[in-house]
Amino acid sequence: MLDERKRLVLRAVIEDYVETAEPVGSRTIARKHNLGVSPATIRNEMADLEETGYLHQPHVSAGRVPSDKGYRFYVDVLMEPHTFSEREYGVIYREISGYYREMERLIREATRLLALLTQSISVVVAPRMDRLVFKHVQLVLLDENSILVILVLQPGIVKNKLIKTEQSYSPAQLHEISTALNQKLKGITYRELGPTVFSEIIRDFGEIGTVLVELVFRGLTEDKGEQVYSSGTANILQQPEFQDVDRARVLLEILDEKERLLSLLSDASKSRGVHIAIGHENPHEEMQDCSLVTSTYHVGRDVVGTIGVIGPTRMEYARVVSLVDLIASSLSELLTELK
Amino acid sequence: MLDERKRLVLRAVIEDYVETAEPVGSRTIARKHNLGVSPATIRNEMADLEETGYLHQPHVSAGRVPSDKGYRFYVDVLMEPHTFSEREYGVIYREISGYYREMERLIREATRLLALLTQSISVVVAPRMDRLVFKHVQLVLLDENSILVILVLQPGIVKNKLIKTEQSYSPAQLHEISTALNQKLKGITYRELGPTVFSEIIRDFGEIGTVLVELVFRGLTEDKGEQVYSSGTANILQQPEFQDVDRARVLLEILDEKERLLSLLSDASKSRGVHIAIGHENPHEEMQDCSLVTSTYHVGRDVVGTIGVIGPTRMEYARVVSLVDLIASSLSELLTELK
DNA sequence: TTTAGCACTCATCTTCATTGAGTGCTAACA
DNA sequence: TGTTAGCACTCAATGAAGATGAGTGCTAAA
Q1: What global pTM score does this model have?
Q2: Which chain B residue lies closest to A116 (C-alpha atoms)?
Q3: Burial label, B270 (beta-carbon count in 10 A; 0-12, 13-18, 19+)
Q4: Residue B211 φ/ψ region, left for φ over 0, alpha for ψ in the -120 to 50 degree band, beta for the rest
Q5: Is the pLDDT of residue A222 over 70?
Q6: Is the CB of A167 under 7 A from strand D?
Q7: Class of A86-128+226-338 in CATH
Q8: Distance in angstroms (rounded) separating the CA atoms of residues B218 and B224
């Protein structure tokens, strides 16, 4: 592995490069971080670091730039987590919790804040319906043949769908169906809705059962209601790596397309906690000079969504990781309280 | 006013410039649009058009570029509306109507399509709650002290809000309150909810009445639930006028901020039908090299929202105007059907 | 009134030299 | 053996100078 001095040099290069966005030379390092050795020694170390793939040189007479491998080593080993003071923590928490009543705004506010604090693009996947527990189901008769189905899910999320039926129902009938449905569904999650439950509903409630299963339950399990939001797209245009409009464009195009954005985040949502994908570790070709820092968020103990930051590989990892972590856990806390 | 030939020249300059984004010279016009006169004559005409402010010359040895005044004359007088074939119309209508069941998706789909077809940014203001007619109000008891308020508004829009009360209510009580509320509200709009209705509700329903008014009705009339969406932000980065990243950034920053975007669209939503703001006609300084083409959309006869396109002043006005018009009216039609 | 001709302007492109940050290598030193 | 000073070398970036050409305005003739 890398010896102590190599680590110091690597770290110095990364931190300098993150700050300036310019290839960093041996002299600069000798001057700024006094390692007690001369530029020449640092040059030797840098040559070694380049040979082992941690650094890379844009051209022979330029300074060094960290490679993806270099960043990876940095986030895994070198980086010291940024810590927030009680006060900062409080500010962030309060900022989000102002919206605690409505889940969607809560989530939007969390992304907005994350984008603001990191000066990068922030993305979030809203809670996956199929992970949530039913709390209440209710059918409301609007007129002759239209019925409003209301589903209340565990963290206070309300979904509704208007359905049309051939047959008409009386309020009393609907009430009865509502009660029966409630008994059947209360406390289980979408994911647990298997074919058995579906056929029971169809059997027990006739036409309305069929419509319910088709439109409401199947529909919602299929698209899972996965909403993706992003915020702060303008921020990355400040970064020097996106002065080239074309590069910025391909990134924004991904953000405009929900599916691609979702597939981008799907990897990260598998593991718990903060997940970092640096440059080429990223499956999407267009994203290979970007890094992605994400974290899952929870309702109680269940992972329900993902929130994260997209920025250039040259990123203040320590800060961003801590912010993502902090905001994800604030969000989890608030959503769990909504419960 | 402008004589026939000047109009032809102006039109030629605009259409050429829209296509190429390069200042257009007298020769080019003589070659492409055969007006039957020599470049020298066209030069004279162009000199006149410049003097009267319709054209403008970036520097003395460049061709001419249309001024805002020039574009204004073009959209008001010269432009021939683009017409769509039955087939094109059908495609567009079907494309949107695939989502007719859910208002929000309907609106999002309309913007997505508009952005795609114009290769510009498309924005939409979702229906203003205060313009919509109440259809149904229902209170559902979730547990001890939490009550779900469901409001169904005319074009099938459902709003809900969770409220907490000190006092606890029985299902029967809630049913009674629901019925009474329904009678009071059915058929009127948010806007018509005056202080009288508020105090009646507070008087009649005690604690729950107060909470209802505060949280639900006042809350909703205040923020009006005005949602703004945008789509196709990546598109403008293709336009040559936005190769300068800074210019693109200020525009994207506006789009990231809901309030600014709303204020941008507020002018347009006053008049019915298609509204065009060219360059400096636009109040926002950052938008003064952009044009905005918007149209209102309706539920029945009531204007409920605005949809439009943001692009560089150099814009295919004829096409964009027709598309905005077409999509706004398709949207109106579909929303009215949802009713 | 229109047009051909011509001198003039000026952004853009190309070329070429200059600059300077940064390197690798070598030899001397601790 | 590891460290450092010195030096030649590389190469992107900057800028000046010249060439190019698209386009104009003006004048005089048709």
Answers
A1: 0.89
A2: B256
A3: exposed
A4: alpha
A5: no
A6: no
A7: alpha beta
A8: 9
